[in-house]
Amino acid sequence: MDTSPKPRLILLCGLPGSGKTTLAKRLAAEIPAVRLCPDEWLADLGVDLFDERMRARLERRFWEHAQDLLRLGQAVILEFGFWERAERDEKRSAARALGVPVELHYLAASVDELCRRLEARSRTGGPGAVLIGRALLEEYAKLFQAPDAEELGLFDVPPPGRCG
User: Fold this and answer.
1) Beta bridge partners of 104
2) 108 in a domain, yes or no?
């Protein structure tokens, strides 16, 4: 039986503090998969995590790289947050055009829980440990388009024995 990893695209969807990086690291080790996390790269390069222009450029470059990796048969995890349905639809369609299954892992949590997690993360430091206050998080929550059951049904399900 062939146990080598199969190409697939995994999109992690959620607000800051929802657990995207924690899940991505676990999945990357289990599958294995290449994990692309803009927050970690921006922090490592000394770029302000709130520099939207730079983030957009980096995410475009990551997407080009992800497509190359998928064509080469590699599994890829994108930790972009995917706040808008249009962005999720675009990635799903493009990956399917490459003949690759696409999983969407939606990580939901209340604003109170997100605030608690973000405060704890900012105390411990590390990549992505920027302080995001309640007011900003509430603004983000207004912009976030959570996937509904119909949308979730458009994505592939994780293989048996592995769920996110």
Assistant:
1) 11
2) yes
Gyration radius from the chain CA atoms: 16
158 occurs within a structural domain: no
Helices H, strands E: what count in the chain?
Answer: 7, 4
In DSSP terms, 12 is beta-bridged to 105
The torsion angle over the Cα atoms of residues 156, 19, 57 and 87, rounded to 10 degrees, is 40
Q: What is the pLDDT of residues 21-71, one digit of tens each?
A: 999 999 999 999 999 999 999 988 999 988 999 999 999 999 999 999 999
Residue count (the chain): 164
- Range of the structural domain that residue 97 is part of: 9-152
pLDDT digits (tens, 9 = 90+) for 101-116: 999 999 999 999 999 9
Residue 164 forms part of a structural domain:
no
How far apart are alpha carbons 125 and 72 in whole angstroms?
35
Tell me how far apart the terminal alpha carbons of the chain are, to the nearest angstrom.
Answer: 24
Q: How many domains does the chain have?
A: 1
User: The pTM is what?
Assistant: 0.91
Q: Kindly state the tokens that stand for 155.
A: 């994505």
Q: Residue 80 sits in a domain of what CATH number?
A: 3.40.50.300
CB distance 144 to 83 below 8 Å? yes
CA dihedral sign, ordered 46, 51, 53, 55: positive
